[in-house]
Amino acid sequence: MLFGALEAGGTKIVCAIGNENGEIFEQISIPTETPEITLTKIAAYFKKHPIEALGIGSFGPIDLDKTSPTYGFITTTPKLAWANCNLVEYFKKELCCPIGFDTDVNASALGEVTWGSAKGLNSSIYITVGTGIGVGVYQNGSLAHGMLHPEAGHILLAKHPEDSYKGKCPYHGTCLEGLASGPAIEDRWGQKAINLVSEMKVWQLEAYYLAQAIVNYILILSPKRIILGGGVMHQTQLFPLIRKQVKELLGGYIQTKELDDLDTYIVPAGLNDNQGIMGCLELARLSI
Ligand code: ADP
Ligand code: ZN
């Protein structure tokens, strides 16, 4: 079966054609301009292929409540041209097929549980550390929604006593995203993260905040595995630093077989940065 996959990010939009096995046959990437310009291009691309359904993983916040009059909308996004954009209705009309819809990070979480590092588990979380920080939550065999969807990249954390950085989040200053996203690293240290590879103190501090967040996620959600992806996590030296601090912060309070082996509990994404677009294929499959 042929499915369409649409991963909508703030700077670029990836469109792909694939199947129910997560195989991608072709894909294109276009810049995110205004909805008027960009949506027309996307629809034209998918119309060239006989897809059975389209899966969309979108930046947000988005409305995922199927009983809501604004289901399928991007809602209050800071990308103002896209606020109140009815994505699901637009593609339903243009493509006349079922549309699966979720957040970009939930799509990545779904890709990872279907084919990647959490394959076969009924509970896991996927954390992306990139331009922003987002968390996709998979629990009891499905993606967690609620009144909206989790926004666990914005949880509030204790500042490191030696960190005087004011934080990058326009809403909360020093939430996790404000302290540990790629732009926060760049702003705090005056250089792009990629140029700070040999600065141990940068990664110690990054791990300090990610470990705090992960401990909170463990205590609240009890995931069976935690996957970290996104641009910043290409710094693989972060993994052992994070694991060590998670162990210390948990203080032995929880004892499970998963936590006995943090090397297999806190792991990198397993799909070569295709977890998002592959997750969109699965969203498409689940919509029919
Ligand atoms: P996005 O979040 O926009 O989808 P990414 O996940 O690539 O895209 O995140 C981009 C952020 O990650 C930027 O702030 C960039 O500086 C940082 N980044 C990208 N690649 C690396 C890398 N190899 N090492 C460290 N930081 C990186
Ligand atoms: Zn925030």
TrEMBL record:
Transmembrane segments: none
GO molecular function: ATP binding; fructokinase activity; metal ion binding
SUPFAM superfamilies with a match to the protein in the record: Actin-like ATPase domain
EC number(s) reported in the record: 2.7.1.4
Enzyme class label: transferase
Cofactors, names only: Mg(2+)
Catalytic activity field: D-fructose + ATP = D-fructose 6-phosphate + ADP + H(+)
InterPro entries assigned: ATPase_NBD (IPR043129), Carb_Metab_Reg_Kinase/Isom (IPR051804), ROK (IPR000600), ROK_cs (IPR049874)
Keyword presence, Endoplasmic reticulum: no
Record keywords: ATP-binding, Carbohydrate metabolism, Kinase, Magnesium, Metal-binding, Nucleotide-binding, Transferase, Zinc
Family of the protein in this entry: Belongs to the ROK (NagC/XylR) family.
PANTHER family: FRUCTOKINASE, TRANSCRIPTIONAL REPRESSOR MPRA
Name of the featured protein: fructokinase
